[in-house]
Design a protein that fits this description.
Helix content: 25-40%
Radius of gyration: 21 Å
Distance between the termini: 19 Å
Number of strands: 16
CATH class of the largest domain: Alpha Beta
CATH architecture of the largest domain: Alpha-Beta Barrel
Structural class: alpha/beta
Order of helices and strands: EEEEEHHEHEHEHEHEHEHEHHEHEEE
Strand content: 15-25%
Number of domains: 2
Strand order of the largest sheet: 3-2-1-4-13-14-15-16
CATH superfamily of the largest domain: Metal-dependent hydrolases
Length: 399
């Protein structure tokens, strides 16, 4: 619920001290020494203030947060993990309502104000994940905005009937059409992209495609996606998640791909992966490509890692891209805030009068210090309402 709040003595993006006034949920003034009566006041204590962190790539429906330890003995192939997960949802009792709520609360307590979640859609579990995350989205709408991607994790062409379930997910209200490795998983890139782009055009939705395919195979799929984007006029409406192929060593080839991505306004979402080639953030941004970031899966059947902290993720993006200078670490934070907001086409996002009052107070001497230290967030505000303090929800919606 939008409300009024005056936050005194803060440093916007680590700059000069000032006060921030939020009225009816929106920032109305940022200046020093504001004298406002009859409004709730919080003392920022000279901390850094940034716009809300943006989790632009995660999977809310299948986290194991709060569940017994899962002993992972899954095979090494991507398909091994996909097949295991589909079966494990029932065997382990992974309730998408309960688990998405747990992950959302963990993320919000650490300063996330917007989330894009890929939610599995398949012929075995149907729409259970989408329905569960939609319920969480509704129940927690006052503390976070959630965007849902209908995601064919198990494939589309390789599992007949999935396209129909995808359509039902979009009819139910999924916001984005997802896709997955057109060649490597579906083994039918034309059929896969026909289905994805057809659904997007029929429902008027943007696209976000997982592209794990490495090297030249991934580049081949990426070229097909770019061709289709140009042919149907979906410039600015397509995002590629992971895009490991952009980390291949053929620098000249990657450069040509990046130039075409920029021309078509196709966005890239990265996790700053530790074990895979990574899209080069600096080169992408220099070419004009919008880059956002996300934590991907958190404590799930794929792996035991993750805590939902997008400030820590900014550090990982910095590490993976060899960002060492202070200004480079500021870029890493920008990827985890403004970059994700651009991918999600968020309106009135930012730290200026007219923007929504979604702000986070960070501990640190500088922005770079805050990213590297990623201490508990002093204050998290959603549209003028304090929703978390010192890393704890306030009041606790899970109570």
């Amino acid at each position: 619920m939008a409300s009024n709040l005056l936050i005194r003595n803060v440093r916007p993006m680590g700059g000069i001290n000032g006060d921030i006034l939020i009225e009816a949920g929106r920032i109305t003034r940022i200046e020093p020494g504001l004298a406002i009566l009859d409004v709730r006041v919080e003392d920022g204590g000279g901390r850094i203030v940034i716009p809300g962190l943006v989790e632009a790539h995660t999977h809310l429906d299948k986290s194991l947060i709060g569940m017994p330890w899962y002993r992972n003995e899954v095979g090494p192939r991507l398909m091994d993990k996909i097949d295991n997960e589909r079966e494990a949802k029932t065997r382990l009792g992974i309730d998408p309502i309960r688990q998405s709520r747990r992950q959302v609360l963990a993320s919000v307590a650490q300063g996330t104000t917007h989330i894009r979640s890929h939610v599995d859609v398949d012929t075995v579990n149907g729409l259970a994940g989408v329905e569960g995350v939609m319920r969480t989205r509704e129940e927690l709408r006052d503390i976070v905005d959630i965007e849902i991607v209908a995601f064919p994790q198990s494939g589309m062409m390789s599992r007949p009937g999935t396209v129909g379930v995808m359509q039902k997910a979009l009819e139910l209200g999924a916001d984005v059409v997802g896709g997955l490795d057109p060649a490597g998983i579906d083994r039918d890139p034309k059929g896969h992209l026909d289905a994805v782009f057809d659904l997007a055009q029929r429902f008027g939705r943007p696209i976000d495609i997982h592209l794990h395919e490495p090297g030249e195979l991934g580049a081949f799929s990426l070229e097909l996606i770019m061709e289709r984007t140009r042919a149907v006029g979906m410039q600015g409406k397509v995002a590629i998640s992971h895009a490991f192929c952009l980390g291949m060593p053929n620098v000249e080839y990657v450069g040509r791909l990046i130039d075409e991505l920029a021309e078509l306004s196709i966005q890239i979402l990265t996790t700053g992966p530790a074990s895979q080639p990574s899209p080069p953030v600096a080169k992408l941004r220099a070419a004009g490509v919008v880059v956002g970031a996300g934590n991907d899966g958190i404590r799930d059947t794929w792996g035991p890692y993750g805590n939902g902290d997008m400030l820590e993720r900014a550090m990982f993006v910095g590490l993976r891209n060899n960002f060492r200078r202070d200004d480079e670490l500021e870029v890493a934070l920008d990827v985890c805030t403004r970059g994700g907001a651009q991918v999600m086409a968020l309106e009135r996002y930012g730290l200026a009068p007219g923007c929504w009052g979604d702000v986070v107070l960070l501990e640190g001497e500088t922005v770079a210090d805050a990213v590297v230290s990623h201490l508990p967030r002093a204050l998290v505000v959603k549209r003028g309402t304090v929703v978390a303090r010192a890393g704890t929800m306030e009041p606790d919606p899970s109570a």
